[in-house]
Design brief:
alpha/beta, five-stranded parallel β-sheet, two-stranded antiparallel sheet, 12 helices, 9% strand, globular
Amino acid sequence: MKAEEIEKKVRDTLKKIGISKKDKILIALSGGKDSAVTAFLLKKLGYNIEGFHIDLGIGKYSEECLKKTEELCENLKIKLHKHIVKEKKGVTMCYIRAAIKSFPKYKKLNNCAICGVIKKDILNKEARRLKAEYLATGHNLDDELQTFLINLFKGSLKLSANLGPITKGKENKKFIPRIKPLYYIPEKEVLKYSKIKKLPVNEKKCPCAQKSYRIETRTLLEKYKPKEKIQMLENFVKFMEKLNIKRDKIKYCKICREPSQRDICKNCELLGVINQKVDSKIYKKTQ
């Protein structure tokens, strides 16, 4: 896939979901290739964008991610907002995870699952605070296929009802709709494009990432060609439409009053356990 083809696909995707160039789009920048390419393309296509980076405090890895993000935003001449977890919560993400997993109920919970819940909460709240109309993420074609298969294998097809280049939560004022400009772009093509454009990215993987269902699903999909993956995704969408499965109505968490599928959102559940008084060295580090 040539660079021009990628740019056209992204342009068509944004046009199809009705994103105006006047809309303020906050881009979740991790320091990796996907979010870097997303920012580069939206800037090139003339969209109104700003960057947002969450510094998790994972040693040299996070330092490198922040460095690459700052370099990217400087090159693109876009404003960068930073959220330093240690400054906001008093401790790094590593300590938060360790404290949560010190409880038997959450001992086997995957590191990425904990991190993902907390980051989603931060992104939505901050995007709303910064008055963004949309929150853009770097999810690509492979990411979307993996998510669908994970939900299918786990018997959670309702979660796939919200998949697509834009989330179906625009009617809720507290929820900032997410857009995925790279929805139809294979991961390998995103990597090639980032190298062609010489974008500053951290190519190292998070040292805290564990073997997960997603990694196994990614391996399963590696044998398929880009055209086959696009066809699979389109078939999945048609499959969901025929089943007419809809997600549960959005509620509001009884603790934080944020949009949630449950009475108490996962973020409040996880952070709530480490606010309990426990005799644990790990917990004491989070104080």
